[in-house]
Structure formats: structure tokens, C-alpha cells
Write a structure and sequence with these properties.
Blueprint lengths: L17 H4 L4 H22 L17 E6 L4 E3 L6 E3 L4 E6 L2 E6 L2 E6 L5 E6 L8 E7 L3 E7 L29 E7 L5 E7 L4 E5 L3 E5 L3 E6 L5 E6 L7 E4 L2 E7 L9 E8 L5 E4 L9 E6 L2 E6 L2 E6 L5 E6 L2 E6 L4 E6 L2 E5 L18 E5 L2 E5 L7 E5 L4 E6 L6 E2 L17 E6 L2 E4 L10 E3 L2 E6 L7
Antiparallel strand pairs: 1-35, 2-3, 2-34, 4-5, 5-6, 6-7, 8-9, 9-10, 10-11, 12-13, 13-14, 14-15, 16-17, 17-18, 18-19, 20-21, 21-22, 22-23, 24-25, 25-26, 27-28, 28-29, 29-30, 31-32, 32-35, 33-34
Length: 463
Amino acid sequence: MITGHLMREGRIRDVKLGRLAKLPVQRAGLALLLAAVLIAAIVATRLGSGSCRGGKSACAARNYVRWSRSLVGSWIAQDGVEGTIFSQGQASAAAGHGVAVIGFGLTVSAYDVMTGFPRWTQNLTGLPGGSAVVSVRAWRGVVTVGVSTPSGAAPTDITGSSAVGTAEGSSSRAGATRREIVLDSVTGKQLRTYEAAASGGAVRAGSKHTVIVGTTAVTSYLNSTGRAIWRDGTGAEGQAWRVAAGKLYVTVSAGGQVGTGPVTAVRQIDLGSGAERLVRPPGGSLDGALNAVVGGSLIFSGSSGLSMYSVANGRLTAQVPGAVAEGSDPVQGVLYADVTGVLTGIDPGTGRILPAQPGTVPEGVYGVRKGVALGLDAGAGGAAWGYSMAKRHTIWTAKSLPWPHYFAETSGLEGNVDPASGTVLLVTCEATGQPVRGTVVGGGGRTCLKPRLVAIGPWGART
């Protein structure tokens, strides 16, 4: 049976070399760069030298470890599904727009997504005690870092300017539980800090603007000053939300997603202009909880199965009884669900089961992109792989990765895979030490003596 890993935190979690090439260091800098690329290639070859396990007929496909880099901090290697985890809280990673980034504790490090060449490491400052990174996202020109802060902590502007952006005004600052920090993706310089909802954060960002989901509003800010450009109220705190095709979809429910009130409408907000329209169902409410937005349909998940509603008019277009949503492919516009224990493609507009070749999807699927399911074999030495949903066999494999840890995007941003290179990030542990008691998931926890950030994916892939 396919396990529901797609929406869990901490599994798969979302540059040009020109800046370096333009510097007048000529030969010395070029030699250093070439040496770093060569070392990365040697490490990748060593990591991927094992044989393919699990009886996958297409595992003759080449090794797809691109590069790896050593990590600092305290990590634990477990035999369970979590793999290598950060021992002092949550870790998060993302890839996109030329940069691969990882955050843990209050440390954020960035690398070139194709070569693994280090860009910068930033230790976040100006935050209250007990703060920790809970998410990172890579955008064009910037990286956004979600930081959990103790409830009631006073806001601190780490940029040194006179204002901290807030989506709800000064009355909400005392209860803020998350802050979103905007960093320059080339230099790591901290540009701005904004307050956000605990389940919110940045949903669009760039060098000029950042759009933040706050507790009761969505706000677009000007990074240079922190001034709000537009703001749309979202009602009660804790509304569910998803992003699709440049639009933000936010539920309208009296008690938010933790309340018992029904969802009576969905706000569609243009992330560029802030223009808003309300999607209302003719029947008065939508059945279940907002799970995804794909192919022009709002996907709601309930105890009886899945319900699809048209984004255009809010009408119920299809239902799939007994189905459990597992994720979606934003490129091909396909919804994936567990139907009688099989990961199945569904047309989100009609609810029709899409045809597929015979064969069983292997366990350990974490996400689907352009028809390729990304997965991981459990246990030490398990292989990471790409599985064609249409051909029903494995098309690439990153072999013999010790205790890998995928990073899953849980917010609905669909940022798990770098759209340009197909790169996916994970953490491995090359060597272990003493046993560690009190591990959260699985057994056999040991201190990780050699944690590494590893980039996997088919060379030259364009998803």
C-alpha cells in the first residue's frame, strides 16, 4: 500500500556562476572553482557506487548523485522513515533559480544548484531565544526563511531599519509565532523581516517584493522599505491555503482549518496585483478541507473521499469515493491519490481515473513532477529513484545512499523540485557514533558523525 508521505514535513523538502566569473581573480579563482567541481564529481561517484536494490528492472539507469557537501551541527541517523534528522529541531531545504539552500537551527547555507559550489552561510541574528528555522524557499534573487519564534516575543528588525513589515498591524505583533526573513540569494545579506502566520509565510518573493500570508491578511511588501503595497484580509486566523499558477487560494471558514465550521467560499488572490475574487459554491459550502488546486479545480478531501470544484464557478464537478489525496503534478495538471492502495492519476476536472500501464507503484513515493514519481527505499543504503507513472518502471536511480532524509514541502507551494534542473535535496550520514535515546520516529538512532547535503536527479533534466 502506498504510504502517505507526500504531505509530511521533513522529507523531500523547494545560480549562475557568472557572478564569480566576473570577479577579477582570474586564474586563482578559476583554479579554485575547477578544483571544487572536480572534488564534487569524485564524491558523487563514490556515493553512487553501490548496486541497485529492490528488484527494479530499470535500475540499470545511471547513478544520479550530482554533488554532496558536508554539514555542521548535530544530526541523528535513524532506521525509520525519517532517516537522517537534525537533532535540535526541524531542518528544511529547497532548490530553485540556481541555488540550493538548507536551514537548521538558526543556520542557513546556500550552494550552486548544479555544482554544489558554496555560496554563503548565514547565522541568523536579532531573534529571541528559542527561535528556529522551520522552512526555506528559493526564489529569483532571494531566499526566504521561515523562523518559529516563542509566542509573545517582541518583533526585532534585523535589517537595522526603523520598521518591521506586518500583515496585520501593530496589534498582532505580540502574538506572532513566525517571522519570514528575506536574504539575498547571491550574498546571503539579510534584507528584511516580516511577521507571518504560524502556517503561513512567503508565497511569492523576489528582489523587490515579498508576499506574506499573515494570521488575518495576505500582504505584498516592498523589500527596500518594508512598506505594504497591497493587503487582502482573510478573516479568521488559520485558514487553509494553496498556490497555483500565480494565484493564492485561501479558504473562508468561521473557525479556520482547526475549527468545525464549514468552508463557505475560497478567496482567489492574484499574487502580482492583489486582485481578489470569491469562489462560492452554489450549494452553500464545500465538502471537507482544501487539499490542492490543480488543473482549474479546487480539491477538497473529506472522510468520504475527494470532491472537485470548479475554480471558475465553484460548482461540484466530480467526486472520487474512498480516495485519499497524495499530491499533484503541477506541470502535467494531474491529481494523484491512493485508490484501493494504488497511487493513481486522476483528471482533476472530471474525476476520471487516468489510464496507466500495468504494474504496481513502489512504496516510498514522496512527490510527482512531470509524470515522474520521486521515491526512496527505506533503511540504511536505500536507493533514491525516479519512477515513470506512465511506463510504470524506474527510470533513474541514485544508489546506496546511507540513511537519506527527504525534505517535503507541506505548505502547498509545490517547491519540492528545482523546475530547471530537476534537483532534489536530501541529507545523508556517512558514519555513525554512539546510540541516541528518545528518537521520535523509528529505531536504531545514532549520532551522525559525517552528515552531508546531497543533490540528486537526472543530469540535464528539465521538468
